[in-house]
Amino acid sequence: xxxxxxxxxxxxxxxxxxxxxxxxxxxxxxxxxxxxxxxxxxxxxxxxxxxxxxxxxxxxxxxxxxxxxxxxxxxxxxxxxxxxxxxxxxxxxxxxxxxxxxxxxxxxxxxxxxxxxxxxxxxxxxxxxxxxxxxxxxxxxxxxxxxxxxxxxxxxxxxxxxxxxxxxxxxxxxxxxxxxxxxxxxxxxxxxxxxxxxxxxxxxxxxxxxxxxxxxxxxxxxxxxxxxxxxxxxxxxxxxxxxxxxxxxxxxxxxxxxxxxxxxxxxxxxxxxxxxxxxxxxxxxxxxxxxxxxxxxxxxxxxxxxxxxxxxxxxxxxxxxxxxxxxxxxxxxxxxxxxxxxxxxxxxxxxxxxxxxxxxxxxxxxxxxxxxxxxxxxxxxxxxxxxxxxxxxxxxxxxxxxxxxxxxxxxxxxxxxxxxxxxxxxxxxxxxxxxxxxxxxxxxxxxxxxxxxxxxxxxxxxxxxxxxxxxxxxxxxxxxxxxxxxxx
Length: 488
Ligand code: ADP
Ligand code: MG
Prior knowledge:
The protein contains 15 helices and 17 strands. It has 488 residues and is of the alpha+beta class. The chain folds into three domains: 3-291, no CATH class; 301-420, no CATH class; 428-487, Arc Repressor Mutant, subunit A (Orthogonal Bundle).
């Protein structure tokens, strides 16, 4: 018997706001444990929650980016459980009336060659709701230590429909979602810092059937590659069970990164009854439709829409747009540079290749790659550089040196060219003399060229470029050499 896998994901994203979901305590990753708390976070008697409206707006923006319907009213429920990560013994969440309903996200499956666009499809979402992050427990041999800094941080939970069927789709989904969330300024999505976390639900059903099978839920998947590995492991495990004629048990499983295996945490029978009920301390939130329209109008263009526009409007190849467009800063930097000099192909190449290479240069010795806003280059630097190449002021060869220099110093390229005397030489007299020397010095190449081997002429260019330190105008050099050989 053959099976189809069914996959649904639940993604938790920490929303970047100055303060927590229901109190003015701030949050910052890596702070000294238990320094970013207050009476509300610690659930001390007599404290009351105060809603952080910025978190609601950011979550609504995310929902709008994903085509969700924004509810007229959302409300807060208590999810009751007894565990040391929550001093209140309940988590505030939106069980019955989430902020964002439905929605879908465009994903791109990798093309085998990875140099061309792969197939695109839309994955359906069920909902996005807001809740508060619990504290962080760390188990150290026989001790468990608790850090409440994370407790109360606004968390958006994005729940997909069971609408994916391969680990590759799940990976494509997470990449697309990450890009969108970063685009919308909601989170930096650093999985190592716990800013984005993913649980994966997997079931199997007989091929072609539309009745869903029993699912398991995998927790503790703290990287995209873990999500992929855990899904593949689970599909194999369930296939073995069903092929042996046994039944899959509905349960929650924990992925063990080191063993690359998952283990049962609890079965459905042991599942909690959370006794959800409406929080008596928080009013339902009535969404202001005019404000929702404002948020919608302020959304950035979505990455795949931008990619299609770049390909059509600027005739850029996939290899370039697939580097520029998933990164909002980089793509905006590119478009800004066009205002200095409208040469999309050349500018896109400098941004996607040279700029990115310099930004990540440090990562070879273990440093973090810089972001565009952290470097000294502005869009005008690259626009000007391409302009002075195209108007013949400098050669492409010299431009490499100028690029490295301007990246390090932040000086404008034309100023560097002036200061270092790097202007391309258009001095016909000087270049002609050097060409004559080159022709005299390499009769073999001259002979080959005369016999019809066009490329042989390149051997004559080297010495001239060397003597002029790369500053000879390449087009002029080519013309001159051909003219002198033809005449001679
Ligand atoms: P719960 O209330 O237990 O969290 P939900 O119905 O909200 O369950 O589903 C949680 C996640 O599990 C969703 O992402 C959903 O798409 C996924 N899911 C539900 N049923 C299945 C199934 N049979 N196979 C795979 N995934 C499923
Ligand atoms: Mg759930």
